[in-house]
């Protein structure tokens, strides 16, 4: 059991689910942890591990929401960049095809993505559109016979520099509705340029994408994506995954601080024996436990069919806020050692900032929950 799982939530996994979690935990510990700081420092993605993900046999597999969430937790607990890579591929890209693709499209694309023979990306955010992307989407799609012509720009697109398939969301010029298209990564007119100088999720290969008269067959338009409501279905499902990732980062921060407090000696005794240090550790443990409990209940709501937008919005807003606190307290406990990569926590502090912002800012998710509890929309 994980050191930070004080209430034993992991025991809620079935025996088969626990086996899968252990397999992923071992992979992250042996394959990712030893190279994470170096890859993060060089802002390079360990592409040699992509096929190793296939060996885990988890992408596109049916499973409970609790299992899927716990897998996100396990990845983020070692490295948030690797969790993000997997979330973009399996959650956003494959999730779009599952939710909005026809049966033929699902059969054509999902098997190869499940084995990581094809890596996916998800292109929604634009240089001038983030929180207002529902109404402000500027990338356009124009039908020309059996072909669509896409023009526009996208930003912050994870996996895009090496993706085989990119799910691009564009506004149909004919009816002004948002539609989804599966674009080959090497399609003529589609250019992905890596975003440099990031201070968070440095391993993730985020890109600016330029689309200039990119031609997409009608057969590659997601047949059940006919408005932004369909896009939102995908985001609602993946937003809960970010809450789980936040818990993973919290667990890592807590585990780092706890281990350090037992090893670091000051005034002739381990600092774990000092009251103020224990106070920090208990505050961290409280945040972890509350957030993990929220995510577990969220998974139950997803599986019993009573899940609503405000459930994932509240979890994302709350858990990522608590994550920032825990990461900061852990860095505080390590003092000067907390700002060098040697002790890992500096990477988690930086990466927490990206998780806090993506898949809907705290403010936007707050308004979603506020609308649900008051019956009044405060969106402008």
TrEMBL record:
MF annotations from Gene Ontology: acyl-CoA dehydrogenase activity; flavin adenine dinucleotide binding
Keyword terms: FAD, Flavoprotein, Oxidoreductase
Signal peptide from the UniProt entry: none
SUPFAM superfamilies found in the cross-reference section: Acyl-CoA dehydrogenase C-terminal domain-like, Acyl-CoA dehydrogenase NM domain-like
Ranges for domain Acyl-CoA oxidase/dehydrogenase middle: 121-214
Span of domain Acyl-CoA dehydrogenase/oxidase N-terminal: 15-115
One of the GO BP terms on file: fatty acid beta-oxidation
Keyword Oxidoreductase recorded: yes
Positions in coiled-coil regions: none
Record domain Acyl-CoA dehydrogenase/oxidase C-terminal: where: 232-373
TM helices/strands, residue ranges: none
CC cofactor: FAD
Entry keyword Lyase: no
Family under the similarity heading: Belongs to the acyl-CoA dehydrogenase family.
Protein name: Glutaryl-CoA dehydrogenase
Phylogenetic classification of the source organism: Bacteria, Bacillati, Actinomycetota, Actinomycetes, Micromonosporales
């Amino acid at each position: 059991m994980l050191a930070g799982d004080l209430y034993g939530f992991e025991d809620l996994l079935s025996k088969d689910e626990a086996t899968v979690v252990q397999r992923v935990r071992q992979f992250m510990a042996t394959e990712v942890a030893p190279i994470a700081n170096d890859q993060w420092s060089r802002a390079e993605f360990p592409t040699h591990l992509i096929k190793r993900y296939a060996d885990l046999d988890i992408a596109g597999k049916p499973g409970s929401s609790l299992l899927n969430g716990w897998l996100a937790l396990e990845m983020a607990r070692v490295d948030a960049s690797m969790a993000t890579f997997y979330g973009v591929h399996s959650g956003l890209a494959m999730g779009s095809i599952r939710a909005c693709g026809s049966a033929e499209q699902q059969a054509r694309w999902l098997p190869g993505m499940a084995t990581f023979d094809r890596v996916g990306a998800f292109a929604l955010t634009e240089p001038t559109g983030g929180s207002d992307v529902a109404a402000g989407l500027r990338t356009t799609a124009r039908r020309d016979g059996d072909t669509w012509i896409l023009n526009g720009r996208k930003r912050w697109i994870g996996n895009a520099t090496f993706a085989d398939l990119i799910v691009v969301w564009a506004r149909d010029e004919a009816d002004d509705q948002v539609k989804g298209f599966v674009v080959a990564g090497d399609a003529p007119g589609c250019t992905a340029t890596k975003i440099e100088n990031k201070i968070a999720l440095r391993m993730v290969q985020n890109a600016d994408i330029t689309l200039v008269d990119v031609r997409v067959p009608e057969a590659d338009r997601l047949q059940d994506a006919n408005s932004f409501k369909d896009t939102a279905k995908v985001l609602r499902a993946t937003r809960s995954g970010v809450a789980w990732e936040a818990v993973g980062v919290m667990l890592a921060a807590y585990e780092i601080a706890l281990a350090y407090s037992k090893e670091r000696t000051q005034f002739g005794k381990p600092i774990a024996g000092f009251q103020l240090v224990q106070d920090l550790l208990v505050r961290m443990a409280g945040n972890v436990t509350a957030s993990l409990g929220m995510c577990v209940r969220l998974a139950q709501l997803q599986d019993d069919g009573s899940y609503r937008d405000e459930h994932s919005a509240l979890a994302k807003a709350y858990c990522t806020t608590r994550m920032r606190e825990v990461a900061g307290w852990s860095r505080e406990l390590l003092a000067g050692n907390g700002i060098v990569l040697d002790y890992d926590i500096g990477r988690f502090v930086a990466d927490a900032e990206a998780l806090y912002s993506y898949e809907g800012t705290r403010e936007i998710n707050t308004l979603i929950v506020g609308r649900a509890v008051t019956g009044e929309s405060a969106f402008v």
